[in-house]
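#struct-pred
JK: can someone run the complex with alpha-D-galactopyranose? inputs below
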Amino acid sequence: MLKKWALVFLVAFLMTSLSCTSGEVKPPRLDLSTGWKFMPQDNLDFARPDFDDSAWKTIEVDRTWNQQGYPKYEGFAWYRIRIVIPSSLIKNAVLKDSLIFHLGKIDDFDQVFLNGELIGENLKNVPPGTKATDDFKNLDHSFWNVPRRYSLAVDDPRIKWDRENVIAIRVYDWGVAGGIYSGDLYLAPADLSEYVKFIYVPNLFTFHQKEIEKTLALRNVSSRYRIKGKFYLRMVDNLTGETVLKRKFPVILQPNARAEYSFKVPKLNRSATLYYRVKLQKSLEERVEKEGLPYILTPPVKSEPRINGARVYGQRPGKPFLFRIAASGKRPLHFSARNLPEGLSLDTTRGIIRGVVKKAGTYPVLITVKNSLGADTKTLRIVIGDRIALTPPMGWNSWNVWGLSVTQERVYAAARAFVEKGLADHGWTYINIDDGWEIYGQAREPKRKPNGEIRTNNKFPDMKKLGDDIHALGLKFGIYSSPGPLTCGGYTGSYGHEEQDARTFASWGVDYLKYDLCSYRKMMTDQNDPRQLMPPYEKMYRALRKQNRDIVYSLCEYGNGRVWEWGARVGGNLWRTTGDIWDEWDRMFSIGFNQEMAAPYAGPGHWNDPDMLVVGWVGWSEQLHPTRLTPDEQYTHVSLWALLSAPLLLGCDLERLDDFTLNLLTNDEVIAIDQDPLGKQALPVIKEKNIQVYKKDLADGNWAVGIFNIGESTQTYTLNFQDLGLSGKLQVRDVWCQKNLGEFTNTFRTVIPAHGVRLLKIFRPGTN
Ligand code: GLA
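RT: done, C-alpha cells with the ligand placed:
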C-alpha cells in the first residue's frame, strides 16, 4: 500500500517538475558555491559551531587561495560557512535516505566538520564521534584532483534540519597551490545515478583491421539499491559532426554488481568521440561521460632497420660513456660503427656503446644497423667536451604515475618495458625515480647512516643494484632530491649534505638528478629572488661536478625568479618553467602554450622544462587511470612538447601501454623534431582566438610547424605561408602520418578537431 502511494507521489512530482522546467528536471540541491569565510591558520576550535568567525575574510571556492591574496601560503587553513538545510530538500527527493555533501576539489587534504563534528576526511565518510588527527599527512599521496563527496544518513544527528548549520573544512596543503578550488559545491539528496560508476577496464581499446573494440564496465556502487535503466552509446565523427553509430544496452545491476559492455565501432582513422549516457528508472539525473576514440596516425614501425633518436651526443672527457643506439627493425639486428673514438667499444648485437674517452673533440661516428631485410647508416656526432644533454633528455619519471608509492621493482619494471616494448629503440633512455625513495621526514628511524650517508626506505632495498640493472639494459638512471631538509612529499632532502649526497648518488651510478626546491623555500625571504634561488642550486652543481661521472642536472623550482634567465649559470641542463602539470586540457594548455618568454634561453645543454608528459595511465598514486586528455589533446601535447624542444619524460605505467599510446610515443619524425640538434625552441607565429601556429627552425634548414586548434569545435584553417615568413611553392609533409602531402603555393588548408593539431614539416625549396 505504502509502495503504491510512493509511486503516485513520484509520478506526480516528476510531472510537476517536468511541466515547469520545460522538459528538464532539476534535481533539488542547495548551492554552496559562495559565502565561505577563510582563515590561513590552524586551530581545531574553528570547527565549533559557536566559534566567532565574524573577523574572517571571505573567499571564493572556484580557485585556490594562492590566487586570492595568499600567494605563498601553504600548510593548514580553514573554510567556514553557515547555512540552513531545509528538510524540503529530502522531502522532494526520490531517494530519501541520505544527504550528500558535494564539496568540489580540494588541494591537498581535507577534514570536513558539520556543527563541530567530523563527517568526512579525504574522500572517506567517518562515523559520529570520530576525532580529527593529523595522521593523513603520512598518506602516500594527496587527493588534490579528486572531487570530495561525503554522505550522511538523513537521520544522522550531526545534521540540523531547517536550522542553521556550520560546515567547517580544515584543509592541508603541502605546497605549490592550496585550497578548495573547483567551485562546484552543493548539498543534494542522493540520486540513483550517483551509484553508477563507469569503469574503464585496463585494456582500453583493441584495434582490429576495420574496427575498434571497446569494453566498458558499469558498476552499481550501492549496497542497497537495484539499478535498472538503459546505457546509450553514440559515436560522433569530429571532423564532420555526423553521428556514425548509435547503440542501446539494457542495464540491470544488483547491489554491488558490475556488468561489462563490449562493442565494436568503425575505425575512422581520424578524430571521433564516444558519448556514454546512462538513464535509470527512478532517477532524476543522467550519468553522461564522453571519451575521445583513439586514432592511430603513424604507420607501424617498419621491419627494415632504421637508426632513430638523437644524432648528437655529448659527454665529458674521462667520464663513463654509455649510449644505446636507438634502432628499430626486425631482430636480430647487427650494429657496427666506424671512427669510434679511442676508449669506446660497441656491443654489436645490442647496439650499446661503452667506455671512456679521454680526449676532447668532435667525433663523427658512422653507425650501421643491419638485419635480414637491409641496412641503415647514419652519422652520430659524439662530442667529448664540457657540455652534456645536447638534446633534450628523453625518458620516464615515476611521479605522474606512482607518486610516493614508487618502489624499486616499479622503477625496474619501467626500464624493462622501455626495452621490451621497443621504446628504447626510439630514443627513450632515462629511468628516473622521483620523490619517495628516501626516509619519510616524520618517521622514527634514522634518515641517514651514522656517517651521514642518506638512507633509502624499505621500498628501495638496493639502489646500487638498481643503477647497475638499468645500465645493463643500456639505459640511464635518474634520482630526485631537494636542497631543503625535506622534499615536497615530506621525505629527506639534501640540505647540509650536498657533497655527501652527490657522492652517494654517483656511487649508485646516477646519471641524472632532479633537484626540487620544496622545503628550501622556508629558508628564503623572497621565493622569486634569483640571489636567493641560485646559491643552493649552484652548491649542488659544484658537488655533482666533482664526481667521476656525468650527471644531468634538472632544476625544479617551478619557474620562480625567471629561472630560464640564470639556470644555465648554476649548471642546470634543464629547468622547470612552471608548476606541476596534470592530465586536464586546461592545465596542459596553460603550461604548454605559455613558454614563449623562456624560448631564447633553450639550446643544446640547457633546456626549458614545461614538466612531464601526461599520457597513458597516470595517477600520482597506486590508483591509476587513463589520462583524461583526449586523443586529440594528446597529439597536441606531444607535438607541442616536441616543437618546444622540451625534455620528454613519460609519467605513465609502461606495463599498461595501449596501442594508441605506444604509437603516439614512437613516431620517429615527431621525436626527431624534439631531438633536432639545432635545439631551437619553437615560437608562436600566429595567435588567433582559436588557432595558434608554432614554427621551429630545424638543423637541416627546414621547418616544423604545428597548427593547433585551441578552440572548442572543429576548425577549417588556411595557413598563409607569408605569416611564417615563407613564400611560393613549398613541399609539405604530415609528420604524424609520415606522409608527403605535396606542393602547396602560398597557402595550406586543413581541418583540425577541437584541441587537436596538424603537425607539418615544410621544406625549403629543393631540399626534399
Ligand atoms: C613537486 C614537483 C613534482 C614532484 C613532486 C614530488 O611538486 O614539482 O614534479 O617532483 O614535487 O613530491
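RT: quick notes.
Residues 1-24 have pLDDT under 50 and may be disordered.
The first strand starts at residue 30 and ends at 31.
JK: thanks, will look after standup
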